[in-house]
Specification:
360 residues, alpha/beta, Rossmann fold, Dihydrodipicolinate Reductase, domain 2, 2 domains, six-stranded parallel beta sheet, 12 helices, globular
């Protein structure tokens, strides 16, 4: 089996999780290098695992002949330039969220991917949770019926220790708050299951921490089919949970409450009646679980790359996520409902940062 040679750029919390996932797939990946400017992050990583060869600078990664894929786990504001540099150097790219900071930048990366012939996979590991995959299986089987209304709760706790990392909580470097950093994956999981959003209304507030970005948010969505969803996010919850509850014509699905793996098992499926229960049981009897989380996404990436198939997550997927995020921030800033899709003449196409201001 052909191995892909990977360099991990950034050994913070997420970078370490990526490193562990690649090593769990050691029959498919070799981690040939890493880059991390922070001595503290490097030391923390070295306490728990053997480090790959360390390079002093991101540019050093790009000149290596033993690197096929650059895995970008650096602070948010660095992603755009680093993706473009990696593509220009002939490397494939895996990039943590947010891939970039605007729809305009995302469109530029899509063009760079096309022109270089390299491939870019954004990280949306929640998509591969077995619980969510069961729901998607039922949707594809035509069992759920019409969607009525869903709710997504992201109730986490973040305080001074979390924001002690210099780039977090600042608009210029963090690029956003809880909608961008904590809840983005959960909201993507919702739209992955239900399809495109047509209209959003949102409110944001900075209530928990003295930072430049929002740490509480609430929003209402309307999907293309007219169905609805409600989103709530806070970083001030004493008990950390995440929860999705999706109400359909023939069943209601509820996720795990685990704050960081809510798309994984256990999920509950409540049938409307005995007939729906029988159809759900029959459909799930044929369901075959596959690896989830980072391991699941990286496994699928390897298969796509070596078998020349579509990536498990594409830049088009990331663009949809960024479009929703942009609409949420624009709605919160202007106090109006925002219609999607957003075109290139939209005021926030070049970035939501100009309208993103914390509220008291």
């Amino acid at each position: 089996m052909k191995k892909l040679r990977v360099a991990v750029a950034g050994l913070g919390n997420i970078g370490r999780k990526h490193l562990d996932a690649f090593r769990e797939l050691s029959d498919r990946y070799d981690v040939t290098a890493a880059c991390e400017p922070s001595a503290q992050n490097t030391a923390r990583c070295a306490e728990e695992r053997t480090l790959p060869p360390l390079l002093p600078d991101f540019n050093d990664v790009l000149t290596r002949n033993d690197v096929d894929v650059v895995d970008i786990c650096t602070p948010h504001h660095l992603h755009y330039e680093q993706i473009l540099q990696a593509l220009a150097a002939g490397k494939h790219v895996i990039c943590e969220k947010p891939v970039v900071g605007s729809l305009e930048e995302c469109d530029a990366v899509i063009e760079a991917e096309r022109s270089t012939g390299r491939r870019v996979m954004p990280i949306f590991q929640y998509r591969f949770g077995v619980g969510l995959q069961k729901l998607l299986h039922l949707i594809r089987q035509g069992i759920v019926g019409k969607h009525y209304l869903s709710t997504v709760e992201t109730a986490w706790q973040r305080g001074a220790k979390y924001y002690g990392v210099a780039w977090r909580g600042q608009l210029a470097t963090g690029m956003g708050g809880c909608l961008l950093t904590q809840a983005l994956h959960a909201h993507d999981a919702l739209t992955f299951a239900l399809g495109r959003v047509r209209r959003v209304c949102a409110l944001t507030a900075t209530r928990v921490n003295p930072v430049e970005v929002e740490d509480c948010a609430a929003a209402s969505l309307q999907f293309a089919d007219g169905s609805l969803a409600s989103l709530s996010v806070t970083l001030g919850s004493a008990e950390e949970i995440s929860r999705m509850r999706l109400c359909f014509e023939h069943l209601t699905a509820q996720s795990s409450l685990d704050p960081y793996t809510m798309t994984s098992e256990p999920w509950s499926f409540f049938p409307r009646n005995d007939e729906a229960a029988a159809r759900i049981d029959a459909a799930l009897a044929d369901f075959v679980p596959h690896p989830e989380g980072f391991v699941g996404q990286f496994l699928r990436f390897h298969e796509a790359m070596t078998e020349r198939r579509e990536l498990p997550v594409t830049l088009a997927d990331a663009r949809d996520s960024l479009e929703l995020l942009t609409a949420l921030y624009h709605s919160a800033a202007d106090g109006v409902a925002v219609e999607l899709p957003l075109t290139s003449d939209h005021p926030s196409y070049a970035g939501w940062h100009s309208v993103l201001t914390p509220t008291d």
